[in-house]
Amino acid sequence: MLFGLFFLLMRLLTIYCWILLLSCIFINLCMFGILDSRNQLVWKVGVFLNRLTEPVLELVRRLLPNLGGIDFSPMVVLLGIQYVLQPLLVEVFRTLLTR
Q: Where are the transmembrane segments (predicted)?
């Protein structure tokens, strides 16, 4: 049971990292005109990715200083997941196993 929960949480964090990367790529493709945001399918995918990523990115943007037109919030979230959340989750799992 505990291993299943740990595996599920780690998998969800990995999936969220991929969604965040896809969102960044999608935004750049739209900005450079490769994808047409007037297309209904492209627009729906953009709204879907935006709804998944914006709540987390907005919190990080409030903490980061304004750096002009550069948005470092996706990078901060990815680094936070990779170097803070996942190792913390591993340590919690280890301590629960040794009880």
A: 12-35, 72-93
